[in-house]
Amino acid sequence: MTDDRERSGRAVPSTRLSRIGAFGRLAGGLAGGMMAEGARRMASGERPSMRDLALTPRNVGRVADQLAHLRGAAMKLGQMISMDAGDMLPAELSAIMARLRERAQHMPPAQLQAVLAREWGSDWRRRFRHFEAHPMAAASIGQVHRATLPDGRVLAIKVQYPGVAASIDADVDNVLTLLRVSGLVPRELDVAPLLAEAKRQLHEEADYVREGEQLRRFGQLLADDRRYVVPGFEPEFSTRGVLAMEYVEGRPVEALVDAPQEVRDTAMRALIALVLAELFDFGWMQTDPNFANYRWQDGAAGDNGRLVLLDFGAARPVEPSTRDAYAALLRTGLAGDRDGAREAAVASGFLGAAAVAGHRALIDRMIDIVIAELGRPGAFDFGDRAFVGVLREQAMEMAADRSTWHIPPIETLFVQRKISGTAMLAARLGARVDVRAMLEARSLLTAPVA
Ligand SMILES: Nc1ncnc2c1ncn2[C@@H]1O[C@H](COP(=O)(O)OP(=O)(O)OP(=O)(O)O)[C@@H](O)[C@H]1O
């Protein structure tokens, strides 16, 4: 989805100074926009708050444009935040997220050549029969090119934008400043541990050697499972800044919106089974549920198709304590045990003790809603989101009391991010999956963990 201006490619700002310059322009633009908007509204008799002013559609557009131009960590973090908050997200951030997905830009040819010569040596072209100069995809920290080897095999080659790794820490801090200025992150909330973790994760994602190892790991874990396709890893072309793998055909998983119900259900059943396997069997989880990380290969007669899994940069181990916490929550939830579910939620850090003391009735109502949804016999209809609105109301009421705010353990947040992203995709596709049956098939969830 690139227009002509983007197709020609603007160089990705790679020096500290030019990045700070980009943020400076953004802050200046925001301030100017706020003043103009404030003057306009006051002239018409309104008394707008700072938050109202910062979040005009124009300003949201500016934030999105700037993050897309910076790419790298800033853009990735923008995506992460909006994905994590899922249904609880303010509409303005959803808008930023949507713009970011459309706005990815790519490196101009000279910058690409410089990066590849540095990573592969100046005679790199001799190793390919053909290397497509125009990237087939531009993502947040890299762009992907298709290339053909002398033996005819086709590869997908992800090339990292220069300067990404070096700018992660500053980008994360800058994005936080931006969110604070726009009023989206309250000053009282201590987000320091989350930021430290975001930086750590982004550094990991910028290390393509690590991503190559994860690609290989998941390829082995799923090698015999016909429901999934994981691209083969190509170590001889891979470096810290270049990840080479087999090119895999497929179409965007979101395009399945128009597919028959049966196909949408098959795709989501496969994805939910994968999440459960990652959590309970593999002890490793790819924690970035960005929809672009899944593609779909249509099947032949009698076969609905296969899920293509891409992008293992965010794969991380699942701690046994996190696995057990989810097992306890699901076990009590499946059994309709409200008290047990509440206790499991506190024990695992999902809920703070202060929240339970202060908002017991609200919490119990939320647990009852989840238990009722889990308890419904037959396939769960992800397209039917009525209960999400009710849950959101209860959550908002609880969130209004800032004295009981609580950030769950980071480990849990990563798993939760995957689960809520998966549920969002299932909702988008209007899939129907008998999740209860899938959970009950796991002995871990029907018998207490030793
Ligand atoms: N092996 C492959 N075969 C076919 N297409 C691929 C392959 N790898 C990547 N792509 C295409 O490139 C896009 C970006 O790849 P990937 O998600 O790995 O990049 P990324 O930089 O990690 O992106 P982000 O972090 O923003 O998700 C994919 O959505 C897909 O369209």
UniProtKB/TrEMBL annotation:
The text of the family note is: Belongs to the protein kinase superfamily. ADCK protein kinase family.
| Name by which UniProt lists this protein | AarF/ABC1/UbiB kinase family protein
Single Gene Ontology BP term?
A: ubiquinone biosynthetic process
What keywords sit in the KW lines? ATP-binding, Kinase, Nucleotide-binding, Transferase
Molecular function in Gene Ontology: ATP binding; kinase activity
- Give residue ranges for domain ABC1 atypical kinase-like: 99-343
Q: Does the keyword Magnesium apply?
A: no
